[in-house]
Specification:
Elements: H1 2-7, E1 11-18, H2 25-34, E2 48-56, E3 59-67, H3 79-82, E4 87-93, H4 97-101, H5 103-113, E5 119-125, H6 137-147, E6 150-153, H7 162-177
The chain binds guanosine-5'-diphosphate and magnesium ion.
């Protein structure tokens, strides 16, 4: 293993998850990194990240995905959280309009802390809850278009598009390198 590491280039991309409390950030990460879902919304303790290895163009890319420790409830995500990020998933809950209305504030905060070149994906999560949808696909799309973000709807519960959401961002970061 050591030999292989010496031969290949190393890519490490820091990606942050942002968005209102309870939109499903932690579950998106656990679904992506461990294929797990947790119904109990237990508060994460301490800043956490998980590293996931993805192969792009035959190269090994390490995606280091950061999850908040629940401090978004107090609007107090620290600059350390954003430092060095090259990608961001801005998450809202399609059943909760207020979380969609907060997206602009999260984007503003991101732009204060990160370079404009950061790859950004707008994520409408909980798309399994179609019967209680409160934000249309069109609303999501047009907000993303205005801000120049990618857009996707996901379900951490039934796994819809979770892999794609992360992989599109990782691919975009990779493309931005060259
Ligand atoms: P966070 O505060 O943004 O990290 O949100 P969590 O990941 O803790 O999720 C908040 C709540 O929403 C929990 O009760 C989860 O079980 C639930 N949840 C998260 N993702 C989904 C989803 O895709 N569909 C549904 N139905 N519930 C979800
Ligand atoms: Mg969380």
């Amino acid at each position: 293993m050591g030999c292989q590491e010496e031969e290949s280039e190393e890519y490490l991309f820091k990606i942050v998850l942002i968005g209102d409390s309870a939109v499903g950030k932690s579950n998106l990460l656990s679904r992506f990194a461990r294929n797990e879902f947790d119904n109990n919304s237990k508060t994460t303790i301490g800043v956490e990240f998980q590293t996931q290895v993805v192969e792009i163009d035959g190269k090994e890319v390490k995606a280091q995905i950061w999850d908040t420790a629940g401090q978004e409830r107090f609007r107090a995500v620290t600059s350390a959280y954003y430092r060095g990020a090259v990608g961001a998933l801005v998450v809202y809950d399609i059943t909760r309009k207020s979380s969609f209305d907060s997206v602009q504030r999260w984007l503003d905060e991101l732009s204060i802390h990160c370079d404009n070149s950061v790859a950004r994906m707008l994520v409408g999560n909980k798309c399994d809850l179609e019967n209680i949808r409160d934000v249309s696909v069109e609303e999501g799309k047009s907000l993303a278009e205005e801000g120049g973000l990618f857009f996707i709807e996901t379900s951490a519960l039934d796994s819809t598009n979770v892999q794609s959401a992360f992989e599109i961002v990782i691919q975009e970061i990779y493309n931005n390198l060259s």
